[in-house]
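Good morning C.,

I know you're traveling, so I'll keep this short. The sequence:
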Amino acid sequence: MAIETVSEKGLVLLGCGKMGSAMLQGWLADGLSPNSVYVLDPFPSQWVLELEQRGLNLNKPLPQKPAVCIIAVKPQMMGEALPSLKEIAKSDTIFLSIAAGTSIASFQSILGDNCKIVRAMPNTPAAIGQGISALIGNRKTSSHDVELCETLLKAVGNTVVLEFEEQMDAVTAVSGSGPAYVFHLIETLAEAGVAQGLSPSLAMTLAKKTVAGAGALAFQSEESPEQLRVNVTSPGGTTQAALEVLMNKETGFPKVLSEGVSAAANRSKELGKS
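The tokens, ready to paste straight into the viewer:
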């Protein structure tokens, strides 16, 4: 039903970079017609230019009452981009923001207090349809409005609905920034393999496949990550020897990762105030 509604009324995409393009690709695959999409982007990619040949509306006048307006520009571009959408904000259009660090109050200060706004935080695996997006609507949005936004975000992965906006800082620290932590784990695991005599290419292949496979197993298994760890840890074996170092409460993952997530959450709060 969401795609039909959007197809009928139109969808505005403000900014079509990597995340916006990933979402648009998912919507088109789900049946959304390029004719129903209005992209505003001063530097469109070749892919978007090709879609224009198939009917996509690129930097053209917008419909008066589109179903949804997706805000996918960087926070520093908000001040310049949002005022052009004030007229649309007077309608029943839902504004779905995937811009990091920009609060609902910030949007309302520009678009008006009566505007329907849903704030979302996707993460970079959305580029391959494996993302996780957390979202929360303002008081003007209905459960139907949030469900429509959920449907759109599911084009690039899974979704969770938050209870209140303040949770977004923790979400940013865990899932928004989280892929970078995993990428660094791959880097350091590969470097450790090289230190033990493996070639860089072999070490990197082993690290990537190990992290990807373990993540897939954790997601698909009915057992908890804790139990999966126990399952692979033989008493007195090699895994236990490593975990005694990595699980050290003072120097291992528990302390380091907790401090990292806390630093990210605090920075998210700071950015939200600026």
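Safe travels,
E.
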